[in-house]
Amino acid sequence: MSNIHKHDERWKVCQPGTLAELAGLDRRLQRRQFLKRATSVGGLVGMGVIGAWMLTKVGNESLDNGSTVKGTFPGDRMYGGILCSKLKAQGQLFLDGKLSDSVVAQIEIHLAECFSCKDFINSLREVEDSADV
4 versus 24: which is more confidently predicted? Predict the structure, then answer.
C-alpha cells in the first residue's frame, strides 16, 4: 500500500497561525534584502553623480585672481597662476631658459605644488641629460 497515510515522527503538527507567521517572516526578510540591494545601487548611483560633478569642477579651475578657466582638461590643475597643460607645453622652453622671469616664477611655484608636473620636468631633464652623453 501507500506510505502517504503513515505518520512520520519527524513531522509535528503546526499550531494554528504558525504558517502565517512564517510567511510574514519570509516577507520581511525579502523586503529587507530588497532594501539592501536598493541602497547599494543607490549608493553606486550617488557615487557616480558625485564623480561626474567633480569632473565638471576640474574643467573650471579657479585662477589666483578668482576668475575661471573653462574647458581645461581633466586633471589640469592651477598652481602659481599656470595650468599643468600650459606648463607641459612650455617645459622645454623652461629648461632652455627661454621664458620670461615672471613665467619662470609661476612655473617654479607650480612645480613646488604639483608632483605630476615635477615628474614631467624631471623626465625632460633625464632625456636631455641622456642626449648629452
Answer: 24
